[in-house]
Amino acid sequence: MHEDLIGQIMEAIDRSKEWAEKGWKVTFGRREVEVSSLHQAQSLPQNVVCREEAVNYWTNVEQTGREAAKYGKKAIAALKRNDLRAAEDAIYFSKYLEKAFADYTRTWKPVHEAVKRELFK
């Protein structure tokens, strides 16, 4: 029934799960060490001063992406029940979670707009 929306949400779920893996340019510490992914942060030597900060940042990105994906799955379940309002609520929460990283991720806002368009037809 809402196959197009479900497809968009599935893509957003996959992208959310990859935020920490694919990453983006971020610098840490006074020396502005660039660390662009969780893997790169974890690979820093233990004696690098900004390692803990970088690992914490990217771990937060990973957890946020997983949480946003979880709400995306709730939205799919709601769409399968033909409950657009519940789907919109779930996607809104994914968009809210993403807000801290939205300049880099740009995942959930377009999905939320698509669901709202469908809801208010």
Written overview of the protein:
It is a single chain. This protein has 121 residues and is mainly alpha-helical. The chain has one domain (3-119). It is 71% helix and 3% strand. It contains 7 helices and 2 strands. The chain has helices spanning 3-17, 19-22, 38-43, 51-80, 84-98, 102-105, 108-119; strands spanning 27-28, 33-34. It has a two-stranded antiparallel sheet. A hairpin with a 4-residue loop joins strand 1 (27-28) and strand 2. Helix 1 (3-17) packs antiparallel against helix 4, helix 1 (3-17) runs antiparallel to helix 7 and helix 4 packs antiparallel against helix 5 (84-98).
Describe the structure concisely:
Helices cover 71% and strands 3% of the residues.
Keywords summarizing the entry:
121 residues; 7 helices; 71% helix
Neighbour order of strands in the largest sheet:
1-2
Largest sheet, if any? Answer: 2 strands, antiparallel
- So what's the overall shape? elongated
Annotation field: number of helices? 7
Question: How many extended strands?
Answer: 2
List the helices and strands and how they pair.
Blueprint: H1 3-17, H2 19-22, E1 27-28, E2 33-34, H3 38-43, H4 51-80, H5 84-98, H6 102-105, H7 108-119
Antiparallel strand pairs: 1-2
